[in-house]
Amino acid sequence: MTQAMTYDSLLSDVELYANNSSADFIAQIPRLVMMAENRIASEVRGLGLQRYATGALSQDDPTLAKPSRWRETVSINLTTSTGRVFLQQRSYDYCRAFWPDPTLTEEPRYYADYDYEHFFLVATPDSDYPFELAYYERPEPLSDTTQTSWTTQYAPQLLLYATLLEAQPFLKNPDQAKQFMELYKQAVAQLGQEDVRRVQDRAAGARRDV
User: Fold this and answer.
1) CA separation for the pair 188, 43 (Å, rounded)
2) What is the pTM of this model?
3) Are the C-beta atoms of 78 and 54 separated by less than 8 Å?
């Protein structure tokens, strides 16, 4: 029978690995899973956490809403009359200095983080340009009703070790924290190596096609 991690099995595994069945600890495990998911979203980058969003800019509006669970931008490109154009990332202060009057419109050249939920674009768009946004996301949080995610399917050991790492301050066990930190780092490194191999495979395929 194929074994697969689910939210329920993760809760059971954390209890088992921690060797702690106290009511206080069991009640805390869902919060520890949430903290582990946030750690992974903040520290891990890879193909499995990269997403793409498409849409159109709004003419005369210098802001663009970020997708839900956005964590980091990879790129933003627009389709213009001359082809695909990639916007360059700059600081918000740079963008305001570059285009001080947002009522003036032109083809955008730069973007900045306006706040956690919006981008700021300059110049203010003079048309509803189609865009494609590549970004890293925090996977949909696990819960009783969301039993699986990309992490449970493709990196279960990473999620398990991250959760056990988050559990150690609660359990007041610094020696175990060091052990699970090493296991967590190894799991992160393994994911990174898989992405490197994918890039190498794509490059080799491209050379064969030439």
Assistant:
1) 9
2) 0.81
3) no
Q: Under a CB-based contact definition with an 8 Å cutoff, are residues 74 and 134 in contact? A: yes
Position 120, amino acid: F
The rounded distance, in Å, linking the Cα atoms of 73 and 76 is 8
Backbone φ and ψ for 98, nearest 5 degrees, come out as -70, -35
Q: What are 17-46's pLDDT values in tens digits?
A: 999 999 999 999 999 999 999 999 989 888
CB–CB of 82/137 below 8 Å? no
Q: Which residues of 194-207 are buried (b: 16+ CB within 10 A; e: fewer)?
A: eeeeeeeeeeeeee
Backbone phi, psi, residue 35, to 5°: -65, -35
The domain ranges of the chain are 7-46+140-209, 58-128
For residues 35 and 143, give the distance between their C-alpha atoms in angstroms, rounded to a whole number.
13
What distance in Å separates the CA atoms of residue 160 and residue 91, rounded to the nearest whole number?
37
Closest CA to 50 of 121, 133, 131, 130: 133
Whole-number Cα distances in Å, 29 to 13, 15, 55, 76, 125? 10, 8, 38, 37, 47
Distance, CA of 13 to CA of 160 (rounded, Å): 8
Q: Which residue, chain included where needed, has tokens 């990174």?
A: 192
